[in-house]
Design a protein that fits this description.
Radius of gyration: 38 Å
Oligomer: single chain
Strand content: 15-25%
Strand order of the largest sheet: 15-16-17-18-21-20
Low-confidence stretches: 1-41, 199-205, 247-260
Amino acid sequence: MRLKNFIYNNSRLFLNRFNLVLLAVIFAIQIVGCNETDDDPEVSPSPEFVSAIVENEMPYDVVATFTKEVILTDSAGFNIQVNSVSATINSVSGDGTDTLTFRLDMDVIFDDDVTISYDSSMGNAEDTSSNPLMSFGPVNVTNNVDFQFDYLIDYVSSEGSFTYDLYVGSDPKDVYFIFTNTSATTDVAPPTVSSNNYSFSKNRAPNTGRQENINLDELFPRGIGLIGKSEITEFNRISPAYFNKNENSNNIVFPEPEAPLLYAIDDAYNFMNTSTSDLIPSTCRYVGSTVYKTLIIWVANDCWHIGGTKANLVTPEMINTIADKFLITGDDNDIYDWVANIFGEEWGAHDYSNLIVDDDEITILLFDIDNDNSTTGGVGGFFWAKDNFLTSSIDYSNERIMFYLDAVMLATPDGETWEMSDYLPASLVSALAHEFQHMIHFYQKAVLRTSDNNSETWLNELCSMAAEDIVADKLQVNGPRGVAYNDYSAGAANNTVGRLPLYNYYNDVPVTAWLSYPDVLKSYAVNYAFGSYLIRNFGGDQFLTDVVQNTYTDYQAIEYALSQAGSSDDFSKILRRWGAANLLSDLTNIQSSDNVTYNNSSSGFDFGDYKAGSINLYNYEYDSYDGPYIWSSLPDTDRGYLSNTYYHAANDITGQQSWDITLPDDMKLTVVVK
């Protein structure tokens, strides 16, 4: 009985104690629960970062979300990086909400790596209860920007055989391959290209049966205005081999000119042409002087309007017009100033005893070049360095600083009356600038800076055509661009004028080759196109100055001028950029840093003292084909040295694409997508 009572009493005691403990636990839980209510701001948690995103519609906005509303005065403390480079945050919006939008000073593009971070010690972001935003990051931002672009250029580094992969996004694009033979001396086999990912749905590229013979009637419906003669051009290139170098130039005793070399109108002289017996009886028809120079113009007797026998004859009006174009009193108002200010003086001191001394005279001889009496064109003019030598070295030298112009072409009008703006006379004015560059080039390059050769022909001609281009508006003559001199836009479609229609059609001719007639017209066209690209991207007149005033006579002269303009490109890389510029010349929104700009809309290109017009190669037409010649199937012939071949690889494609490509040695691939 006691045992029962003991058990009973102790069990009651145990239950009473258990109940007390249970009540205490319940009470404690209630207290904790009360403390966790939102009514106590002192223990309210800080806002935290959740995620961030960039959307395709607003590629410049990074949108970040947080656990609570965020208040801030500026973007201090936030750091957004694009490809590990901090982007500038122009503004932040969404204050007082749980979503902040950070507007960048740039667009995020497809495949950019974007991160966001926040340092609370530097920022002022907090919630509505003044709890500071907690530091975070850097964390990845979701990039939903699709691959959208106006154009894309990829200078592919792969060589030999490889698969080229390309993602072009959801917006249909055309793909072009430019194959550049970078060898300076050797033609190479054509590349091979195959793809299983697309087929052409349209085709603006030509068939492989291109007409290789120049259509002269289409190219020059109003007459051919050639500049220079091949044998004279070659003489000018190699003539430094005839220089007699004086070992001690301080002891040179130069012969004095025949006293006095002062000419008067109606003076007569027999100019020597190709030999001492090949004479051109002529009469002085103009003498004009400025402070620094004297211009003397002679006309062959059979070309003068009194007593002449040619189809069209030179008059005093024509002589005075030419004279005023070339040299007139005043500064920066004539061909002499405009061209010499770029390239330098045409003659001066030197170290060679068999070259003539400087007398500050320039002679122009007007005669019927080739004695063809042609009113439909021909050789318009030339500079012949033989005349810079004393007759003791070259016996048929005229011992003058001079150049030659075709008198019949100058005198040929378009209609009943003669105007300087007529087709052939205007071409002669442009020829004055062209040949004057050759005259200067000989002195600045061959005499002053080299001793073995003058510049290679392509380089010298590039400079002369660039001179025509860059002074066309000053001359008030339409230059090789084929657009009106006072129109700095790219002109209208279906343009068949100037050098560029022929260039488009034969745009795979090697830059540094100089072909024979009539294919030499292709060489002129290619080198004008190349030079026009260079001056529009690398400094205009200053670039030309740097090409001439250095010791290089080949492609290295271009590389030197590029380096002076701040470019590290070598010649092969600049050929690749030029190729891209060809295909993008119909666009006016090219990034200047890409150095592929031909077309600057109606503004043209302003270099300070000189201007040049825009070029859209798609505006030019030759042989019923408009725009650059782009192959739809690759040619099976070797590709010329230092040349570009353009290939239409795909059209209207989207998404991921790939091509299997094999490049021969020395060939590089550039891809243009637009």
